């Protein structure tokens, strides 16, 4: 008995190679256009689709080559054209070209770069397999175009292997290391010193110190004008990328590099700093995950021209040969032409991406020594092109009738997602969708919100139905259990059947669902759709962060001072406020772990926020409203990082998950016990938490077994409520704003550099920008060389 009918099996045997070749071409086309989207968008469906296409592209090409090799050794089927196998041999180098991958993606994740040896071995094996397929079809009348195609395919695959090799962290670090510095020739110096001493010549050794910061001429000068041009943004971004890419591999920087960067960034406007960091992160992304870095070298450009030339020559040789359709199958000829034409189209697309990349502008027009030098016509042309990638800001009216400029850069122009995600603890406990502060008015967003709303209602309905079934099941089971105690026959018949059908089977499904959820994290994906909020970056948010770090950089002259400033978790901000209540607030920072501090201040911020929600916010001043909005967004963002992005917070997370679960359990029990009617009433729920008397500390009542911080946060919120607006604006919202900036900076500086780089493939995060901005202001651990080189000099007195 045949599982597959003979007719279908015959079709599959006839079209399997053709189908695989077409699939391989489709995957290449798909990847070259979709891969750049992953640095602009953080949707998980994009990552899932790319992951599938990336893996299937290699598998399809490899399997197709093996099928071609296998097919060459078979006897021709009756009715097949006599030389058709020779045409199929032409497809082998095409598949080698496909294995070289598109220029827009070489590595799916940072770990793929470490597998460059595997790709090198695959290159050799696939090249040998292709040669074997051609040898089997000897003497092949198509050997000239096949040979040229092999050159093209080999160059493309070598480019991919070389890109992976260059981006592997150990090789990336090796290329950045400077030549070994042995210092002065000690042996020779001592010989000369001893010789002159024996000659009774007055000789001394002096150490010539390197000039100090204020004695050296500045090596990087900002143009003396109000704004940097678009081309200058890219040039400075490339300059700092070449310097600070060592952060990825934990290299140590000198005091010169620190002073150069810090002095330059102090003169920048916040918007200019944002654009330069955007460009830097773009260069970092392209050097780690694409072929861009190697293609912009002289060798890479030369070999790419050779690859395109051989592809073009191969096509002309194939096309000029008179094709006899009785020798080749018509469909195979058509597929071959499609392979050529699509190959040309993809190469043209790669050329356009190559020419319009930031690397091209930075390499062709390097940074000038004199920033005031007159701009050429080429500079003007490049500035015009780069104008389309400039961040776009749009004025937005918030709930408090305050006007803010939000980041609204077009999808194809943006360099990162520009989104700040948020996770609200109280909203999650109440299963309430947190509304956006900056609500975008777009059709796509309206459709998405409508889908999420329907999805949320369906889940709620299912949960209510399951709860009702459990209640009914519990009542029936109780009745049947009482009846079974009186009647043994009933116990072993009706009650036994009931336990199997209505208790045992649901339990089996519950266990299966538990396994599925643990493997695929279904519940976390559903929670992310329902409870993750999204806010665009606003100009005043970035300005808050920029000026806070700029002020702190004034206290970071020495590496040890920079470490103290960058490792502050709120205590620096509280001491800077000069409020009398600081000592009580300091207890919630100095005496607690970082993850505990995050949860404490997040819940306290939300309680204060909900306390003033509604009509109360109209009484706030413009500055207080901005501080309130900033604190709310960053508070939710930090909780999002702690709960939803554990890799980014792995160095500081501690027992955050346990503490979160304990606090959530206590909050849900508390809300249930207070009979809160509207479970989505976050304001009412917050007021209920604040209404609890906190005369005795929760620790003294509950002990240390439970890690819940719900009512500790309530105590903190009440302390914050006591803060009055001072003359310099230091009210509770100004204090919260400063504390949240420090908590954000602490997380950014303690996140692994490789995790920052990995996040670039998922749309980027505000955390990545803060990390790089701190480095530019000298607030990083890598600046450990405090003094310049002292050189010994032998001086002979007269």
UniProtKB/TrEMBL annotation:
Keyword Transmembrane: yes
InterPro entries: DUF4220 (IPR025315), DUF594 (IPR007658)
Transmembrane segments: 15-34, 301-319, 334-356, 492-516
Alphabetical UniProt keywords: Membrane, Transmembrane, Transmembrane helix
Residue ranges of domain DUF4220 in the record: 51-426
Database matches in PANTHER family: OS01G0798800 PROTEIN-RELATED
Record protein name field: DUF4220 domain-containing protein
Record organism: Capsella rubella
């Amino acid at each position: 008995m045949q599982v597959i009918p003979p007719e279908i099996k015959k079709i599959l045997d006839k079209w399997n190679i053709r189908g695989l070749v077409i699939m391989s071409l489709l995957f290449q086309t798909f990847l070259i256009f979709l891969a750049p989207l992953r640095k602009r968008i953080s949707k998980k469906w994009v990552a899932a689709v790319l992951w599938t296409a990336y893996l299937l592209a290699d598998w399809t090409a490899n399997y197709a080559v093996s099928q071609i090799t296998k097919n060459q050794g078979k006897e021709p089927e009756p009715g097949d054209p006599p030389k058709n196998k020779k045409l199929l041999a032409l497809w082998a180098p095409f598949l080698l070209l496909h294995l070289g991958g598109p220029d827009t993606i070489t590595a799916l994740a940072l770990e793929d770069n470490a597998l460059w040896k595997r790709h090198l071995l695959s290159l050799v094996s696939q090249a040998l397999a292709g040669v074997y397929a051609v040898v089997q079809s000897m003497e092949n009348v198509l050997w000239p175009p096949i040979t040229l195609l092999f050159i093209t395919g080999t160059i493309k695959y070598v480019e991919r292997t070389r890109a992976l090799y260059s981006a592997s962290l150990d090789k990336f670090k090796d290329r950045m290391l400077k030549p070994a510095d042995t210092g002065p020739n000690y042996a020779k110096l001592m010989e000369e010193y001893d010789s002159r001493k024996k000659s009774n010549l007055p000789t001394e050794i002096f150490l010539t110190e390197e000039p100090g910061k204020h004695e050296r001429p500045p090596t990087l000068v900002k143009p003396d004008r109000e704004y940097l041009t678009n081309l200058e943004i890219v040039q400075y971004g490339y300059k700092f990328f070449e310097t600070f890419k060592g952060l990825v591999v934990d290299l140590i920087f000198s005091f010169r590099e620190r002073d150069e960067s810090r002095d330059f960034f102090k003169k920048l406007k916040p918007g200019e700093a944002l654009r330069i960091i955007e460009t830097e992160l773009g260069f970092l992304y392209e050097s780690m995950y694409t072929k861009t870095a190697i293609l912009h070298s002289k060798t890479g450009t030369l070999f790419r021209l050779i690859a395109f030339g051989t592809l073009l020559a191969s096509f002309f040789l194939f096309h000029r040969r008179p094709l006899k359709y009785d020798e080749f199958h018509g469909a195979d000829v058509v597929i071959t032409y499609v392979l050529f034409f699509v190959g040309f189209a993809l190469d043209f697309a790669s050329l356009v991406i190559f020419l319009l990349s930031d690397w091209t502008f930075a390499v062709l027009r390097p940074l000038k020594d004199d920033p005031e030098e007159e701009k050429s016509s080429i500079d003007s042309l490049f500035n015009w092109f780069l104008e389309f990638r400039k961040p776009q800001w749009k004025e937005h009216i918030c709930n408090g009738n305050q006007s803010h400029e939000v980041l609204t850069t077009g999808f194809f122009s943006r360099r990162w997602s520009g989104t700040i995600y948020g996770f609200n603890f109280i909203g999650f406990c109440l299963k309430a969708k947190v509304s956006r502060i900056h609500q975008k008015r777009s059709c796509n967003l309206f459709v998405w919100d409508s889908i999420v709303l329907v999805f949320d209602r369906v889940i709620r309905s299912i949960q209510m139905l399951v709860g009702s079934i459990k209640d009914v099941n519990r009542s029936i089971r109780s009745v049947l259990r009482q009846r079974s105690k009186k009647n043994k026959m009933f116990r072993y018949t009706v009650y036994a059947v009931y336990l199997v059908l209505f208790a045992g089977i649901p339990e089996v499904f519950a266990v299966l669902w538990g396994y599925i959820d643990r493997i695929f994290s279904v519940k976390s994906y559903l929670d992310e759709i329902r409870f993750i909020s999204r806010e665009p970056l606003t100009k005043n948010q970035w300005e808050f962060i920029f000026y806070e770090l700029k002020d702190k950089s004034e206290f970071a002259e020495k590496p040890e001072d920079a470490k103290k400033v960058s490792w502050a978790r709120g205590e620096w901000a509280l001491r800077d406020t000069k409020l009398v209540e600081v000592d009580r607030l300091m207890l919630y920072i100095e005496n607690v772990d970082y993850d505990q501090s995050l949860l404490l201040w997040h819940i306290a911020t939300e309680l204060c926020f909900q306390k003033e929600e509604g009509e109360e916010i109209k009484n706030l001043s413009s500055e207080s409203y901005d501080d309130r909005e900033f604190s709310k967004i960053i508070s939710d963002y930090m909780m999002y990082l702690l709960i939803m992005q554990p890799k980014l917070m792995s160095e500081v997370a501690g027992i955050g998950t346990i503490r979160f679960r304990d606090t959530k359990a206590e909050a849900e029990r508390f809300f249930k016990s207070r009979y809160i009617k509207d479970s989505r009433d976050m304001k009412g729920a917050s007021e209920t938490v604040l209404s609890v008397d906190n005369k005795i500390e929760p620790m003294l009542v509950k002990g240390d077994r439970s890690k819940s911080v719900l009512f500790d946060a309530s105590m903190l919120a009440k302390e914050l409520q006591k803060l009055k607006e001072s003359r310099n604006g230091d009210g509770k919202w100004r204090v919260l704003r400063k504390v949240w900036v420090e908590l954000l900076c602490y997380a950014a500086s303690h996140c692994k550099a490789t995790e920052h780089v990995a996040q670039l493939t998922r749309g980027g995060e505000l955390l990545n920008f803060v990390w790089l901005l701190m480095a530019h202001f000298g607030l990083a651990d890598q600046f450990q060389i405090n003094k310049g080189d002292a050189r010994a000099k032998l001086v002979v007195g007269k």
